[in-house]
Amino acid sequence: MSDYEGNESKFMRKAKENPFVPVGMAGFFAIVAWRLMKMKNRGDTKMSVHLIHMRVGAQGFVVGAITIGVLYSMYNDYIVKPREEQKALKDK
């Protein structure tokens, strides 16, 4: 197994453990690409302001995706699993 295959399987394992990380990464790259394409139509806006807006938008998307992932994980850990355990104890 080469290092490339090991890294790919590690990424896939992490993506299955926390599916919102790839969503956050994809959103980050999409926002950056969109803002880079809009750069030619920015008018008289300074480059630094444009780049700051791009960074804030991309970071906001990533933070939102991570927050949703944490809430989803907490829901599974504290609501779904206890219900399943109670149901399993009831069925015994």
UniProtKB/TrEMBL annotation:
InterPro entries: Hypoxia_induced_domain, RCF1. It is found in: Mitochondrion membrane. Keywords: Membrane, Mitochondrion, Transmembrane, Transmembrane helix. It comes from the Eukaryota. GO terms for cellular component: mitochondrial membrane. The keyword Transmembrane applies. This is HIG1 domain-containing protein. It comes from Pogonophryne albipinna.
